[in-house]
């Protein structure tokens, strides 16, 4: 997926996205980091085709696209589950919009839930789940059609630190296994450095800096490594945040 010289302004306002070039290669994991209001969500909606650029192009699989199709999964900050559907049927929702799910598709949904530690909860309703479990269901729903590209807008922002770390680990694993390309918006510098191959620092609707992250396979120890701390410092500097002395 690539954004080429994308510009966008809300009617009556100055540019929110101001000439962005961004390329997400297959299997790559990119994080967009920036201050509140810098245009991250708008950029993600442009990438999804939920907004249309005033100029420039969004290209997905070689074509300019104009709507979220089966090749793209989207996860919002809140899980947005359908309260009157069981967990399994929430996961199968993107399938149900096209046809009645087959047994094979139900098995696939159950497998996804199993990978996310939710096999025992498939028949429950969303209100019977914790916030972290609901986020996992939203992730499973976004993955059910095996999208080539996953767009996530601060999906773990409302979660406690422990649940968040577990979900970050599971998300990385699932995207790596499927070679899913990811564009992930977050305010959290450590989250971005842990997840990303590349962090794009956004400022006033532009990419202010691109930072490639070359960490070995992420494990629990990664967050305490010198290289990890160094990358966080680099992102902080790009955001003009006060330096943290080692
Ligand atoms: N519908 C709208 N009409 C006018 N301006 C809007 C609209 N939606 C967003 N904006 C403005 O566009 C700018 C960028 O918003 P956006 O939601 O993309 O920022 P963000 O970086 O995702 O912020 P946050 O981190 O707080 O979620 C903000 O100044 C916001 O006020």
Automatic annotation (TrEMBL):
Membrane-spanning parts: none
Source taxonomy: Bacteria, Pseudomonadati, Pseudomonadota, Betaproteobacteria, Burkholderiales
Record carries keyword Transport: yes
Domain of life from the UniProt record: Bacteria
Pfam families: ABC_tran
InterPro entries to which the protein is assigned, alphabetical: AAA+_ATPase, ABC_transporter-like_ATP-bd, ABC_transporter-like_CS, ABC_transporter_ATP-bind, P-loop_NTPase
Protein's recorded name: ABC transporter ATP-binding protein
Keyword field: ATP-binding, Cell membrane, Membrane, Nucleotide-binding, Transport
Family: Belongs to the ABC transporter superfamily.
All residue ranges annotated as the ABC transporter domain in the record: 1-229
GO MF terms, alphabetically ordered: ATP binding; ATP hydrolysis activity
């Amino acid at each position: 997926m690539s954004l080429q010289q994308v510009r966008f302004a809300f009617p009556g306002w100055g540019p929110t996205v101001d000439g962005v070039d961004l390329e997400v290669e297959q299997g790559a994991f990119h994080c967009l980091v920036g201050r509140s209001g810098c245009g991250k969500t708008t950029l993600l909606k442009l990438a999804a085709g939920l907004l249309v650029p005033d100029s420039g192009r969004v290209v997905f699989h070689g074509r300019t696209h104009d709507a979220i199709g089966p090749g793209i999964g989207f996860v919002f900050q809140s899980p947005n589950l359908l309260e009157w559907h069981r967990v399994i049927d929430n996961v199968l929702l993107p399938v149900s919009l096209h046809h009645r799910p087959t047994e094979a598709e139900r098995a696939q949904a159950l497998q996804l839930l199993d990978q996310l530690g939710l096999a025992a909860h498939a028949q429950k309703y969303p209100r019977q789940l914790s916030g972290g479990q609901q986020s996992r269901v939203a992730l499973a729903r976004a993955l059910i059609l095996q999208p080539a590209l996953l767009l996530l807008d601060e999906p773990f922002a409302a979660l406690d630190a422990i649940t968040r770390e577990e979900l970050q680990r599971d998300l990385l694993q699932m995207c790596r296994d499927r070679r899913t390309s990811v564009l992930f918006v977050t305010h959290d510098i450590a989250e971005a450095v842990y997840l990303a191959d590349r962090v794009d620092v956004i400022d006033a609707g532009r990419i202010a800096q691109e930072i490639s992250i070359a960490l070995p396979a992420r494990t629990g120890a990664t967050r305490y490594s010198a290289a990890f701390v160094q990358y966080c410092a680099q992102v902080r500097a790009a955001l003009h945040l006060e330096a943290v002395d080692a």
